[in-house]
Amino acid sequence: MFYRKTVYWRTTVEPIKFSIIVPAHNEEKEISKCLESIKAAAAPYGEQAEIIVVLNRCTDRTEEIALAYGCTTIKNDDRNLAKIRNAGARAARGEILVTIDADTVMSSFMLAAAEKLLATGLFIGGGVTGKFDRMSIGITASVAALSVPIMLKYGLISIGIFWCRKADFDAIGGFNEGMLLAEDCDFARRLALYGLRNQKLFGTIPFAMTTSSRKFDQYGDWLLIKRPEIIAAFLKENDQKLADQLYYDFEN
Protein backbone atom coordinates (compact mmCIF):
# COMPACT_ATOMS: atom_id res chain seq x y z
CA MET A 1 0.00 0.00 0.00
CA PHE A 2 1.29 3.43 -0.94
CA TYR A 3 0.63 6.56 1.05
CA ARG A 4 0.69 10.00 -0.45
CA LYS A 5 2.70 12.35 1.67
CA THR A 6 1.55 15.96 1.56
CA VAL A 7 4.26 18.51 2.16
CA TYR A 8 3.20 21.97 3.33
CA TRP A 9 5.63 24.69 2.42
CA ARG A 10 5.72 27.55 4.86
CA THR A 11 6.60 30.84 3.24
CA THR A 12 7.59 33.85 5.26
CA VAL A 13 8.07 37.43 4.18
CA GLU A 14 11.26 38.84 5.61
CA PRO A 15 10.69 42.25 7.21
CA ILE A 16 12.75 45.22 6.10
CA LYS A 17 13.35 48.68 7.55
CA PHE A 18 11.42 51.04 5.23
CA SER A 19 8.48 50.90 2.84
CA ILE A 20 8.01 54.14 0.92
CA ILE A 21 4.57 54.44 -0.69
CA VAL A 22 4.06 56.66 -3.73
CA PRO A 23 0.54 57.15 -5.18
CA ALA A 24 0.77 58.00 -8.87
CA HIS A 25 -1.79 59.02 -11.50
CA ASN A 26 -0.10 59.72 -14.87
CA GLU A 27 3.07 61.06 -13.27
CA GLU A 28 5.63 60.41 -16.02
CA LYS A 29 6.78 64.06 -15.88
CA GLU A 30 7.35 64.17 -12.12
CA ILE A 31 7.95 60.73 -10.71
CA SER A 32 11.59 60.31 -11.75
CA LYS A 33 12.63 63.22 -9.52
CA CYS A 34 10.65 61.73 -6.64
CA LEU A 35 12.18 58.28 -7.05
CA GLU A 36 15.70 59.68 -7.43
CA SER A 37 15.29 61.48 -4.11
CA ILE A 38 14.00 58.35 -2.37
CA LYS A 39 16.88 56.30 -3.76
CA ALA A 40 19.38 58.86 -2.44
CA ALA A 41 17.75 58.95 1.02
CA ALA A 42 17.53 55.13 1.12
CA ALA A 43 21.08 54.49 -0.08
CA PRO A 44 22.47 53.83 3.45
CA TYR A 45 19.85 51.10 3.96
CA GLY A 46 20.61 49.00 0.89
CA GLU A 47 18.08 46.19 0.51
CA GLN A 48 16.33 47.29 3.70
CA ALA A 49 14.19 49.82 1.82
CA GLU A 50 11.49 49.23 -0.78
CA ILE A 51 9.52 51.68 -2.91
CA ILE A 52 5.90 50.82 -3.66
CA VAL A 53 4.32 52.84 -6.48
CA VAL A 54 0.53 52.60 -6.48
CA LEU A 55 -0.55 53.08 -10.08
CA ASN A 56 -3.89 54.87 -10.24
CA ARG A 57 -5.53 54.70 -13.68
CA CYS A 58 -2.22 55.38 -15.41
CA THR A 59 -2.22 55.61 -19.21
CA ASP A 60 1.28 57.05 -19.62
CA ARG A 61 4.82 55.80 -18.85
CA THR A 62 4.52 55.97 -15.06
CA GLU A 63 4.64 52.19 -14.63
CA GLU A 64 7.57 51.81 -17.01
CA ILE A 65 9.56 54.45 -15.11
CA ALA A 66 8.73 52.93 -11.72
CA LEU A 67 9.87 49.48 -12.84
CA ALA A 68 13.07 50.95 -14.27
CA TYR A 69 13.87 52.25 -10.77
CA GLY A 70 13.28 48.81 -9.28
CA CYS A 71 10.03 49.74 -7.56
CA THR A 72 7.24 47.37 -6.63
CA THR A 73 4.08 48.39 -8.49
CA ILE A 74 0.49 47.66 -7.64
CA LYS A 75 -2.70 49.00 -9.18
CA ASN A 76 -5.65 50.72 -7.58
CA ASP A 77 -8.29 52.53 -9.64
CA ASP A 78 -10.18 54.29 -6.84
CA ARG A 79 -10.67 58.06 -6.99
CA ASN A 80 -9.75 58.20 -3.35
CA LEU A 81 -6.24 58.95 -2.07
CA ALA A 82 -6.92 57.26 1.26
CA LYS A 83 -7.74 53.98 -0.50
CA ILE A 84 -4.76 54.37 -2.83
CA ARG A 85 -2.30 54.92 0.04
CA ASN A 86 -3.84 52.14 2.12
CA ALA A 87 -3.44 49.73 -0.79
CA GLY A 88 0.27 50.50 -0.78
CA ALA A 89 0.48 50.01 2.97
CA ARG A 90 -1.14 46.57 2.73
CA ALA A 91 1.60 45.48 0.34
CA ALA A 92 4.38 46.89 2.51
CA ARG A 93 7.03 44.76 4.23
CA GLY A 94 8.73 47.60 6.08
CA GLU A 95 8.80 48.18 9.80
CA ILE A 96 8.51 51.91 9.04
CA LEU A 97 6.02 53.30 6.53
CA VAL A 98 6.63 56.52 4.66
CA THR A 99 4.13 58.15 2.30
CA ILE A 100 5.15 60.72 -0.29
CA ASP A 101 3.36 62.19 -3.30
CA ALA A 102 4.80 61.59 -6.76
CA ASP A 103 5.34 65.32 -7.38
CA THR A 104 7.39 65.71 -4.19
CA VAL A 105 11.12 65.31 -3.57
CA MET A 106 12.38 64.21 -0.14
CA SER A 107 15.57 65.57 1.36
CA SER A 108 18.55 63.23 1.51
CA PHE A 109 18.37 63.07 5.33
CA MET A 110 14.63 62.40 5.59
CA LEU A 111 14.63 58.63 6.14
CA ALA A 112 17.58 58.71 8.54
CA ALA A 113 15.89 61.46 10.55
CA ALA A 114 12.64 59.46 10.78
CA GLU A 115 14.52 56.33 11.92
CA LYS A 116 16.44 58.32 14.53
CA LEU A 117 13.32 59.96 15.98
CA LEU A 118 11.39 56.68 16.14
CA ALA A 119 14.35 54.94 17.77
CA THR A 120 14.22 57.36 20.72
CA GLY A 121 10.84 55.91 21.73
CA LEU A 122 9.54 59.45 22.22
CA PHE A 123 7.71 59.79 18.89
CA ILE A 124 4.74 57.99 17.38
CA GLY A 125 5.65 59.29 13.93
CA GLY A 126 4.88 62.53 12.20
CA GLY A 127 5.16 64.70 9.14
CA VAL A 128 7.57 67.17 7.61
CA THR A 129 7.88 70.78 6.58
CA GLY A 130 9.30 71.95 3.28
CA LYS A 131 8.77 74.32 0.40
CA PHE A 132 7.34 74.63 -3.08
CA ASP A 133 9.75 74.51 -6.00
CA ARG A 134 8.55 78.01 -6.87
CA MET A 135 7.27 80.68 -4.52
CA SER A 136 5.42 83.96 -5.01
CA ILE A 137 3.28 86.37 -3.02
CA GLY A 138 0.16 84.70 -4.44
CA ILE A 139 1.26 81.18 -3.47
CA THR A 140 2.19 82.36 0.01
CA ALA A 141 -1.21 84.01 0.41
CA SER A 142 -3.02 80.93 -0.90
CA VAL A 143 -1.16 78.59 1.46
CA ALA A 144 -1.91 80.88 4.41
CA ALA A 145 -5.59 81.09 3.46
CA LEU A 146 -5.88 77.28 3.61
CA SER A 147 -3.52 76.69 6.53
CA VAL A 148 -5.43 78.77 9.08
CA PRO A 149 -8.82 76.98 8.83
CA ILE A 150 -7.07 73.61 8.53
CA MET A 151 -5.12 74.34 11.71
CA LEU A 152 -8.27 75.43 13.53
CA LYS A 153 -10.04 72.19 12.54
CA TYR A 154 -7.23 69.63 12.81
CA GLY A 155 -4.75 71.24 15.17
CA LEU A 156 -1.12 72.21 14.78
CA ILE A 157 0.11 69.37 12.58
CA SER A 158 2.67 68.81 9.85
CA ILE A 159 1.89 66.81 6.73
CA GLY A 160 3.62 66.51 3.32
CA ILE A 161 5.47 63.26 3.97
CA PHE A 162 4.25 60.93 6.72
CA TRP A 163 6.42 58.50 8.67
CA CYS A 164 5.45 56.03 11.39
CA ARG A 165 5.81 52.38 12.29
CA LYS A 166 3.54 50.09 10.29
CA ALA A 167 2.15 48.66 13.52
CA ASP A 168 0.94 52.12 14.54
CA PHE A 169 -0.38 52.85 11.04
CA ASP A 170 -2.44 49.67 11.27
CA ALA A 171 -3.52 50.44 14.83
CA ILE A 172 -5.26 53.66 13.77
CA GLY A 173 -6.72 52.09 10.63
CA GLY A 174 -4.51 53.89 8.13
CA PHE A 175 -6.06 56.70 6.13
CA ASN A 176 -9.79 57.36 6.42
CA GLU A 177 -11.32 55.95 3.25
CA GLY A 178 -14.52 57.91 3.85
CA MET A 179 -12.71 61.16 2.95
CA LEU A 180 -11.88 62.54 -0.50
CA LEU A 181 -10.05 65.65 0.67
CA ALA A 182 -7.94 66.49 3.75
CA GLU A 183 -7.42 62.79 4.47
CA ASP A 184 -3.79 63.65 5.22
CA CYS A 185 -4.78 66.21 7.87
CA ASP A 186 -7.19 63.71 9.41
CA PHE A 187 -4.47 61.03 9.46
CA ALA A 188 -2.05 63.40 11.19
CA ARG A 189 -4.60 64.28 13.86
CA ARG A 190 -5.49 60.65 14.56
CA LEU A 191 -1.84 59.61 14.68
CA ALA A 192 -1.09 62.48 17.07
CA LEU A 193 -3.98 61.53 19.36
CA TYR A 194 -2.94 57.87 19.30
CA GLY A 195 0.55 58.99 20.25
CA LEU A 196 -0.73 60.99 23.20
CA ARG A 197 -2.60 57.95 24.48
CA ASN A 198 0.70 56.08 24.36
CA GLN A 199 2.78 58.90 25.89
CA LYS A 200 4.44 59.71 22.57
CA LEU A 201 4.73 62.87 20.51
CA PHE A 202 3.81 63.69 16.92
CA GLY A 203 7.08 64.83 15.36
CA THR A 204 8.04 67.14 12.53
CA ILE A 205 11.17 66.85 10.39
CA PRO A 206 11.97 70.37 9.13
CA PHE A 207 13.08 71.21 5.58
CA ALA A 208 12.54 67.60 4.51
CA MET A 209 10.76 68.06 1.17
CA THR A 210 10.30 70.17 -1.93
CA THR A 211 6.94 69.84 -3.65
CA SER A 212 5.70 70.91 -7.05
CA SER A 213 3.86 74.19 -7.60
CA ARG A 214 2.22 72.72 -10.70
CA LYS A 215 -1.38 73.29 -9.55
CA PHE A 216 -0.58 76.97 -9.02
CA ASP A 217 1.16 76.98 -12.41
CA GLN A 218 -2.04 75.70 -14.02
CA TYR A 219 -4.73 77.48 -12.01
CA GLY A 220 -2.90 80.64 -10.89
CA ASP A 221 -0.88 81.58 -7.82
CA TRP A 222 -3.86 83.27 -6.13
CA LEU A 223 -5.97 80.11 -6.54
CA LEU A 224 -7.20 79.80 -2.96
CA ILE A 225 -7.85 83.53 -2.62
CA LYS A 226 -9.91 83.70 -5.81
CA ARG A 227 -11.71 80.42 -5.19
CA PRO A 228 -12.62 80.14 -1.50
CA GLU A 229 -14.94 77.26 -2.35
CA ILE A 230 -11.82 75.08 -2.53
CA ILE A 231 -11.05 75.86 1.11
CA ALA A 232 -14.67 75.05 1.98
CA ALA A 233 -14.34 71.74 0.12
CA PHE A 234 -11.27 70.78 2.16
CA LEU A 235 -13.18 71.47 5.35
CA LYS A 236 -16.20 69.55 4.04
CA GLU A 237 -13.86 66.67 3.02
CA ASN A 238 -16.14 64.97 0.46
CA ASP A 239 -16.57 67.22 -2.57
CA GLN A 240 -16.09 64.76 -5.43
CA LYS A 241 -16.10 67.39 -8.18
CA LEU A 242 -13.30 69.45 -6.65
CA ALA A 243 -11.40 66.35 -5.56
CA ASP A 244 -11.45 65.12 -9.16
CA GLN A 245 -10.29 68.51 -10.44
CA LEU A 246 -7.45 68.89 -7.96
CA TYR A 247 -6.29 65.26 -7.72
CA TYR A 248 -7.98 62.38 -9.44
CA ASP A 249 -8.35 63.88 -12.91
CA PHE A 250 -5.51 66.41 -12.66
CA GLU A 251 -3.11 66.18 -15.60
CA ASN A 252 0.20 68.01 -15.52
TrEMBL record:
Single Gene Ontology BP annotation: carotenoid biosynthetic process
Any single GO CC term annotated in Swiss-Prot or TrEMBL for this entry: plasma membrane
Domain of life per record: Bacteria
Domain Glycosyltransferase 2-like: 19-107
Pathway: Carotenoid biosynthesis; staphyloxanthin biosynthesis; staphyloxanthin from farnesyl diphosphate: step 4/5
Subcellular location, record wording: Cell membrane
Cited SUPFAM superfamilies: Nucleotide-diphospho-sugar transferases
Single GO term (MF): glycosyltransferase activity
Coiled-coil region: none
Transmembrane feature ranges: none
PANTHER family from the UniProt entry: GLYCOSYLTRANSFERASE, GLYCOSYLTRANSFERASE 2-LIKE DOMAIN-CONTAINING PROTEIN
Functional summary from the UniProt entry: Catalyzes the glycosylation of 4,4'-diaponeurosporenoate, i.e. the esterification of glucose at the C1'' position with the carboxyl group of 4,4'-diaponeurosporenic acid, to form glycosyl-4,4'-diaponeurosporenoate. This is a step in the biosynthesis of staphyloxanthin, an orange pigment present in most staphylococci strains.
Similarity field: Belongs to the glycosyltransferase 2 family. CrtQ subfamily.
Stated name of the protein: 4,4'-diaponeurosporenoate glycosyltransferase
UniProt lineage: Bacteria, Bacillati, Bacillota, Bacilli, Bacillales
